[in-house]
């Protein structure tokens, strides 16, 4: 017998409780316990006891509504997931519920055992993921606090010595500032990770639920549309995870410059071919190599990551049908790489912060992303002892230019 899942239904209509109980009883191979709270106040009292795994909340609750209940419960410290139930399909209510903290949204009268079981299961899994992120957040805060105490003790010891007290204090202050910056970076990571994971996870949940409704042959196009949405969401999640892992490895000093000999032009042509499957509809990458010999001694793995990141950004921030230009140039001493797009450009006010971690330009907030890509590119270029420059203007596109030694040693 699987573990019992405890559900609290918040609804002021006993008939709806009976209907929900009957639907749950039809779910196969699951062990559920359904409890009922018939008023706003009774619901808050039961939620505070933390005796349930998930809450089903009716939108209409007398003088209150379900959104008020969810908001109040979350402010009181509730961590279990909320699923909002409403009498009709309402996109505005759906979006508002998700922003306030609901895990899902179901339309009463259209609920079947399959949809309800899937919504409960995904909501609980999503809540577990958020709890893990919060746990990591707490652990990091504890580490920062412990490190701060160690540094404070170090200051006291240094004050007892006669060795460059002023200089030692300056170093300690720098260390404390670094720890503060680390703490801020951690908080931004938790916030962005929670937000960026939520959107694709919600897409996977909704599309997976809808696929089951299209069972006829003539529904193949609709099924394929949702399969494509799921694939896109998974690809987005993978990209986010890769950004976080790359940043972590760089911070830990685990990325090394390991140069090998290869021909630059065919290497870049392979990258362009690989990118063709990821760029937007109608876009085209134009590649041109300038110079005589394309033989170089560089780290192929780092160089590929740099180019994939820059070309992906060029595609993401450009409209369909736009051109992307990739140019490589070599002489006896150096390699120059340039990626130019016809996209939205970077506002002048944002350009000073472009390579900061988690930074998003003002005109890029509606595009998916973590704000880590260009920070990672800059760090990779530094590992290759190169320089990274850019030219951009809002609505006119952006060019990135990388210069580095043609033949490098580890």
TrEMBL record:
It comes from the Bacteria. Residues 192-408 form the Histidine kinase domain. The modification 4-aspartylphosphate is found at residue 58. It is an enzyme of class 2 (transferase). It comes from Rufibacter roseus. Its EC number is 2.7.13.3. The keyword Coiled coil applies. Keywords: ATP-binding, Coiled coil, Kinase, Nucleotide-binding, Phosphoprotein, Transferase, Two-component regulatory system. This is histidine kinase. It catalyses: ATP + protein L-histidine = ADP + protein N-phospho-L-histidine. Residues 137-188 form a coiled coil. One of its GO terms (molecular function) is ATP binding. SUPFAM superfamilies: ATPase domain of HSP90 chaperone/DNA topoisomerase II/histidine kinase, CheY-like, Homodimeric domain of signal transducing histidine kinase. Residues 6-123 form the Response regulatory domain.
């Amino acid at each position: 017998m699987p573990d019992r899942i405890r559900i609290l239904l918040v609804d002021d209509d006993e008939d709806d409780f009976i209907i929900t109980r009957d639907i749950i009883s039809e779910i196969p191979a699951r062990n559920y316990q359904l409890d009922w709270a018939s008023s706003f106040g009774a619901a808050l009292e039961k939620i505070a006891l933390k005796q349930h795994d998930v809450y089903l909340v009716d939108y209409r609750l007398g003088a209150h509504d379900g959104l008020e209940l969810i908001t109040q419960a979350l402010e009181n410290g509730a961590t279990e997931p909320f699923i909002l139930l409403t009498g009709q399909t309402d996109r505005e209510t759906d979006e508002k519920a998700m922003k306030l903290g609901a895990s899902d949204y179901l339309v009463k009268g259209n609920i079947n055992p399959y949809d309800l079981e899937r919504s409960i299961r995904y909501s609980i899994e999503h809540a577990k993921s958020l709890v893990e992120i919060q746990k990591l957040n707490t652990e990091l805060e504890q580490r920062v606090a412990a490190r701060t105490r160690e540094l404070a003790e170090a200051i006291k010891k240094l004050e007892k010595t006669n060795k460059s007290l002023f200089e030692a204090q300056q170093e300690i202050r720098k260390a404390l500032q670094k720890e503060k910056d680390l703490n801020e970076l951690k908080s931004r990571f938790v916030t962005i990770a929670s937000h960026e994971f939520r959107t694709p996870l919600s897409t996977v949940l909704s599309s997976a639920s809808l696929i089951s409704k299209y069972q006829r042959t003539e529904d193949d196009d609709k099924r394929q549309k949702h399969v494509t949405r799921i694939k896109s969401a998974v690809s987005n999640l993978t990209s986010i995870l890769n950004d976080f892992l790359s940043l972590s490895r760089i911070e830990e000093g685990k990325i090394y410059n390991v140069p090998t000999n290869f021909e630059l032009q065919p290497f870049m042509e392979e990258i362009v071919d690989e990118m063709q499957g990821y760029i937007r509809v109608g876009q085209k990458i134009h590649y041109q190599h300038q110079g005589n010999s394309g033989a170089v001694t560089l780290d192929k793995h780092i160089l590929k990551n740099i180019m994939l990141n820059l070309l992906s950004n060029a595609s993401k921030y450009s409209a369909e049908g736009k051109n992307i230009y990739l140019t490589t140039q070599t002489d006896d001493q150096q390699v120059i790489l340039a990626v130019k797009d016809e996209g939205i450009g970077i506002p002048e006010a944002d350009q000073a912060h472009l390579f900061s971690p988690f930074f998003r330009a003002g005109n890029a907030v509606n595009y998916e992303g973590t704000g880590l890509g260009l920070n990672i590119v800059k760090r990779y270029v530094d590992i290759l002892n190169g320089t990274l420059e850019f030219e951009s203007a809002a609505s006119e596109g952006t060019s990135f230019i990388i210069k580095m030694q043609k033949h490098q040693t580890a």
